[in-house]
Structures are given as C-alpha cells and as structure tokens.
Amino acid sequence: MTIFQFPQFSPEAAKLWEEIPEEFQEMVLDNVFCSHCRDVVRIVDYSGSVVSGDLCLEGNCAICGHKVARLVEGS
Predict the structure, then answer these.
(1) How far is C-alpha 38 from the geometric centre of its chain's CA atoms?
(2) Domains of the chain by residue range
(3) Any residues with CB less than 8 A from the CB of 49 and at least 6 apart, and which?
(4) Which of 36, 33, 34, 73 is nearest to 55 (CA)?
(5) Residue 5: its pLDDT value, please?
(6) DSSP letters along 20-58, please?
(7) What are phi and psi of 50, to 5 degrees?
(8) What is the mean pLDDT of the chain?
(9) Above 70 in pLDDT, residue 17?
(10) Strand 39-41 and strand 8-9: pairing?
C-alpha cells in the first residue's frame, strides 16, 4: 500500500500554485520528466518553493520513486 504525503508549500509558492486553475495544476503534476524511467510521469509527495520568481515542485516519480522536479515559470 502506498501512502502519499500532503503537499507542503512555502507561503510564496502556495500563492503561485493557487493562481493556477485546478485543471492546469493536474496537467502540471502529470507532466514531469523522470530521468530514471526516461519518460513523462506524475509527481507525488511533492513540495513547492519559489526559485528566481518561478514555482519549483520537488517530489518523487509515481512509478519508480526517483526524485523529480518541475519548474513552473511565471508570466
């Protein structure tokens, strides 16, 4: 049985994440490249922070558990 954690965001990251419509949030979570699987996967057990004004999601690959990250560039 796999247990997933609730996302943890810095206050700035939470604000940026909430500005993204829910349907696009799901698209972002499902579109992360895993270098171990060499494929696009879903990110799980992720946290969010702001790096150079952009939202950075860091977590694990839903398939193999390898560390993955996704940068969501600001406008």
Answers:
(1) 17
(2) 8-72
(3) 9, 10, 12, 13, 55, 56, 58
(4) 73
(5) 59
(6) S-HHHHHHHHT-EEETTTTEEE-EEEEEEEEETTEEEEE
(7) -110, 125
(8) 91
(9) yes
(10) unpaired
